[in-house]
């Protein structure tokens, strides 16, 4: 088979059909990555316009440009858009586009999930924009502190838009994170052991892992606050045993890791571009990997530094202060590894490099002010002042936006297939750099002069006017720079000569394909021998197109890519990924229907979309699988491998495991909230405890034990025992909920209600999974070789059993002891 | 802290600029960059800074003192009510304190979270529903100091300010005796 024939065959299998139907059904990672990047960039521009309006209002004292009601919507939306709708989706889109190409694969592990994630993001983000256009945008700050965001002080629909819209977007973030983690761990080119992975993949692996742990607390917080707003369950109402500080803990448990979640992908970009621009290799690969892991770990231990002024004892603050300064160390390791890399090579001051220098200057300043605010007595002064506004923009613009602009210029040829021509970009850089520093450096000073954050106006004659005016002028310089950047990039798409392959002479695999890449990326999959495969073999791209790698013969219309052993990178099995389908968009629409019904307060209609989602989930799983064994198939020369349907732990199993890990973090945060309220909140103990029953507790525990232990039995027995055990759990939970006091009375009751609901939901999911397995076995989808489905169902059953046992114990035992 | 930060910033910028020079000394070994600059350097600086911050922080805490004055501050949307002598006397949007004596402000809120901040008299502290927080402030000399609400509290946040009037000994005596509001 020659290269052209191979291209035609692969393109027929992988391309999306033309027209709008093809666009709606596409699950191709390149297309979806570009859509995410473009959508996120549009949100960036919207957020930027809001920032301009903020600066216009603050330019002069006593300005009447926007009243406080509008101004509060402006800064709430600016923060929310930049954090949730720009930064996260932007790097997700970049990772979705780039990772498979860097890792030498043809797609992500779960293409339909990639598409579902994009649709959820688009719909959720649009909800917020619609709210803004209707003048009903959230106005309680992007941090949504209770009780300001609670019903009595924010009676309108504004806060509901935030809680529901952001949660919708977070669903997308969670499923995309699972997609990224499993794809990095399992779907790589054979031979690419963990220590040969491009650094960017390491960064994204840790980032996505952090998302799985960091986002659930925020989702939990949003669910609890929405329950309080919609049904009066008092989680954050001090008078009824709630605590507004619980919200702050849950929010910052997410919110601080979020900063590193945003920074790490950008640092990954730097670690990729910098050595290429300095014509050398990265200094200290192993040290950098260690630093990334340390950052990921430490970032979860310092959320309290956002709460230094809420009245926590000083010695406890000292602990979090130490943890906060500690993160400077892995950051320093990276910074000096990068500077050392520059020194060991021959860096040139070309385009992406300018932005990297912009990054260094800006980010180091942000880091230094970060160390300052980590010192408790300094923070007592600077907290909630314009100083912090300056600090966070130095960190986030320096640590994310500048590297992303560098990435845009570095990888532009990949998207356009053209070489950069115009010099407009350099001017844009200087406008952005100067404008940025002018805007934000002055905020340090005026913050130390006492200007608080989030004020819509300030009096004349107290020394703030001059700084604010200059700051506003700077922001408009910055805006001009960004406009020029947009023009420059757009010009490259239409008016530049074609680029040759690998224009930077980089070593990573994403340059080993024609530009722009075809839908299937590579004609065959390489065997990777080192960290820089293209440097070992500059003609690799031609050899891959000529079919000298794995899976060079398209067969059966399957979308095939290689799955590997996680650590060694040994070829493990053939992953056949699903093709284009309408399931993702339909599921996202039904998910959206649930959120819209919640928003419009048609609570009694919400069971409809929930049932729809259960049915779609069934369809989603039922679309896969085969009724016959195919056995080992050739992958390269004499080598053969099984398909994923016939191995023990296919990506689907790993996907479930990581999704459950995120789910377990959600549950952990819920238990934390329950224990926190019980021990710290005012107005405890509750007026009455639930009616505990040893019998109910025993029934639930027995059911959990039976459902989980059934795994060792043959199929038919396993199914019977599993269903019986699950039914017992359901009965025990229903009885417990029935005899619990009404949730609106006290936070204790409300917490019990959520715990029973959470366990009940998972028992229901386990029930569905078991019924699914039963149907599939009878229909002939399972064999001794095709055994993954029961194993995945068992995973969900075990999780439901564990959760039920913990919930029943945590609810009945304290009441029994009282 | 400012001088140290400036020095570190200049050091990093200098190191980067140096990398672009055509003629420069050979790069130091990897160990120097990563262990020396990346580990030893920040650990030393940060340990010193942390210890210093801890000592200062302890000194700013509300501690017993013979000439201590205790006042209360109840914030609400959008007003400050200050109480003296266990709540017997009240003033609105202006807090009266003696100059040169430590003052403990007991902070509560009637509705959402607010924060008490007089930049020239001390740090800031939040007023959280269901709790009482205590903030120590002290004015070195008599005068009028501007205070702001430092936690976003809704529509009236920007205008949720107050004044602190620090009296000399005689003035404080007069205020305490009820002569002046």
From TrEMBL, chain A:
GO terms for biological process: electron transport coupled proton transport; oxidative phosphorylation; respiratory electron transport chain. It is found in: Cell membrane. SUPFAM superfamilies: Cytochrome c oxidase subunit I-like (SSF81442), Cytochrome c oxidase subunit III-like (SSF81452). GO terms for molecular function: cytochrome-c oxidase activity; heme binding; metal ion binding. The keyword Manganese does not apply. Pathway: Energy metabolism; oxidative phosphorylation. Residues 20-529 form the Cytochrome oxidase subunit I profile domain. Its EC number is 7.1.1.9. One of its GO terms (cellular component) is plasma membrane. Belongs to the heme-copper respiratory oxidase family. This is cytochrome-c oxidase. It comes from Pacificimonas flava. The lineage of its organism: Bacteria, Pseudomonadati, Pseudomonadota, Alphaproteobacteria, Sphingomonadales.
TrEMBL record, chain B:
It holds the Pfam family COX2. InterPro entries: CcO_II, CcO_II-like_C, Cupredoxin. It is found in: Membrane. One of its GO terms (biological process) is ATP synthesis coupled electron transport. The chain crosses the membrane at residues 33-55. Its main location: membrane. Residues 66-178 form the Cytochrome oxidase subunit II copper A binding domain. One of its GO terms (molecular function) is copper ion binding. The keyword Transmembrane applies. It catalyses: 4 Fe(II)-[cytochrome c] + O2 + 8 H(+)(in) = 4 Fe(III)-[cytochrome c] + 2 H2O + 4 H(+)(out). Belongs to the cytochrome c oxidase subunit 2 family. PANTHER family: CYTOCHROME C OXIDASE SUBUNIT 2 (PTHR22888:SF9), CYTOCHROME C OXIDASE, SUBUNIT II (PTHR22888). This is Cytochrome c oxidase polypeptide II. It comes from Pacificimonas flava.
């Amino acid at each position: 088979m020659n290269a052209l024939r191979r291209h035609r065959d692969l393109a027929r299998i992988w391309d999306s059909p033309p027209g709008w139907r093809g666009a709606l059904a596409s699950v191709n990672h390149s297309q979806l990555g570009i859509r995410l990047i473009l959508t996120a960039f549009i949100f960036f521009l919207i957020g930027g316009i809001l920032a301009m309006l903020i600066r216009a209002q603050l330019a002069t004292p006593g300005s009447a440009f926007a009243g406080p009601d509008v101004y509060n919507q402006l800064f709430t939306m600016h923060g929310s858009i930049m954090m949730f709708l720009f930064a996260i989706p932007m790097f997700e889109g970049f990772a979705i586009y780039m990772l498979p190409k860097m890792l030498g694969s043809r797609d992500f592990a779960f293409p339909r999930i990639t598409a579902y994630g994009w649709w959820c993001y688009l719909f959720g983000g649009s909800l917020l924009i619609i709210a803004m256009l209707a003048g009903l945008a959230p106005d309680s700050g992007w941090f949504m502190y209770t009780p300001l965001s609670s019903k009595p002080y924010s009676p309108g629909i504004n806060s509901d838009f935030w809680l529901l819209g952001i949660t919708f977007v977070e669903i997308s973030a969670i499923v995309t994170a699972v997609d990224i983690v499993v794809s990095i761990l399992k779907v790589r080119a054979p031979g690419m052991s963990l220590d040969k992975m491009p650094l960017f993949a390491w960064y994204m692996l840790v980032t996505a892992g952090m998302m799985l742990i960091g986002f659930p607390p925020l989702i939990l917080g949003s669910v609890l606050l929405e329950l309080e707003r919609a049904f009066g369950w008092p989680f954050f109402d001090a008078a009824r045993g709630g605590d507004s500080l619980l919200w702050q803990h849950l929010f910052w448990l997410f919110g601080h890791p979020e900063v590193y979640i945003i920074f790490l992908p950008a640092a990954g970009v730097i670690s990729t571009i910098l050595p290429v621009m300095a014509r050398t290799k990265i200094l200290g690969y192993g040290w950098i990997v260690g630093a990334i892991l340390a950052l990921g770990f430490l970032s979860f231990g310092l959320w309290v530094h956002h709460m230094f002024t809420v009245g926590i004892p000083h010695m406890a603050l000292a602990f979090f202060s130490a943890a906060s300064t500690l993160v400077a160390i892995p950051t320093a390791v990276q910074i000096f590894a990068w500077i050392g890399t520059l020194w060991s090579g021959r860096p040139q001051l070309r385009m992406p490099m300018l932005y990297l220098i912009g990054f260094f200057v800006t980010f180091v300043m942000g880091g230094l002010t970060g160390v300052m605010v980590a010192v408790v007595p300094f923070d007592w002064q600077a907290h909630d002042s314009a100083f912090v506004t300056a600090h966070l923009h130095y960190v986030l613009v320096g640590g994310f936006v500048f590297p992303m602009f560098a990435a845009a210029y570095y990888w532009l040829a990949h998207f356009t297939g053209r070489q950069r021509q115009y010099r407009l970009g350099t001017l844009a850089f200087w406008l952005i750099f100067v404008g940025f520093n002018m805007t934000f450096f002055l905020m340090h000073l005026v913050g130390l002069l006492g200007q608080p954050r989030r004020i819509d106006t300030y009096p004349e004659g107290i020394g703030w006017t001059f700084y604010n005016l200059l700051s506003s002028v700077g922001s408009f310089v910055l805006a001009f720079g960004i406009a020029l950047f947009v023009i420059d990039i757009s010009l490259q798409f239409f008016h530049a000569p074609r680029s040759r392959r690998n224009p930077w002479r980089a070593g990573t695999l994403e340059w080993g394909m024609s530009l722009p890449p075809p839908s299937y990326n590579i004609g065959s999959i390489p065997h990777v021998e080192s960290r820089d495969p293209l440097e070992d073999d500059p003609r690799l791209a031609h050899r891959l197109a000529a079919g000298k790698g794995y899976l060079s013969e398209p067969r059966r219309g399957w979308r095939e890519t290689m799955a590997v052993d996680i650590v060694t990178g040994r070829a493990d099995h053939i992953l056949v990924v699903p093709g284009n389908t309408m399931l993702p968009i339909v599921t996202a629409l039904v998910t959206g229907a649930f959120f819209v019904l919640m928003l419009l307060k048609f609570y009694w209609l919400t069971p409809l979309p929930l049932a729809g989602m259960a049915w779609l989930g069934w369809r989603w799983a039922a679309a896969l699988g085969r009724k016959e064994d195919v056995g080992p198939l050739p992958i390269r020369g004499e080598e053969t491998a099984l398909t994923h349907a016939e191995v023990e732990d296919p990506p689907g199993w790993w996907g479930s495991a990581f999704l459950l890990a995120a789910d377990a973090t959600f549950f952990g945060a819920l238990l934390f909230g329950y224990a926190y309220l019980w021990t710290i909140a005012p107005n405890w103990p509750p007026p009455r405890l639930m009616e505990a029953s040893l019998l109910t507790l025993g029934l639930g525990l027995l059911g959990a034990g039976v459902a989980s232990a059934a795994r060792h039995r043959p199929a038919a027995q396993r199914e019977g025992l599993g269903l019986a055990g699950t039914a017992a759990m359901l009965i025990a939970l229903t009885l417990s909920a029935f005899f619990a006091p009404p949730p609106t009375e006290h936070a204790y009751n409300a917490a019990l209600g959520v715990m029973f609901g959470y366990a009940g939901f998972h028992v229901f999911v386990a029930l569905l999974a078991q019924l699914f397995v039963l149907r599939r076995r009878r229909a002939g989808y399972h064999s001794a070789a095709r055994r993954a489905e029961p194993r995945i169902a068992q995973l969900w059953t075990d999780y439901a059993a564990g959760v039920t046992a913990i919930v029943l114990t945590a609810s009945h035992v304290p009441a029994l002891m009282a | 802290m400012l001088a140290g930060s400036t020095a570190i910033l200049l050091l990093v910028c200098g190191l980067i600029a140096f990398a672009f020079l055509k003629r420069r000394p050979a790069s130091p070994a990897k160990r120097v960059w990563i262990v020396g600059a990346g580990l030893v350097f920040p650990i030393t600086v940060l340990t010193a800074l942390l210890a210093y911050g801890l000592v200062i922080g302890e000194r700013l805490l509300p501690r017993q003192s013979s000439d201590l004055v205790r006042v209360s501050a109840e914030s609400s949307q959008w007003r400050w009510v200050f109480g003296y002598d266990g709540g017997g006397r009240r003033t609105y949007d202006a807090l009266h304190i003696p100059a040169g004596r430590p003052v403990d402000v007991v902070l509560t809120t009637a509705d959402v979270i607010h924060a008490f901040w007089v930049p020239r008299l001390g740090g800031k502290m939040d007023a959280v529903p269901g709790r009482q927080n205590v903030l120590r402030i002290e004015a070195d000399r008599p005068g009028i100091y501007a205070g702001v609400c430092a936690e976003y509290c809704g529509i009236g946040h920007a205008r949720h300010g107050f004044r602190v009037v620090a009296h000399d000994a005689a003035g404080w005596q007069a205020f305490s005796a009820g002569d002046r509001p």
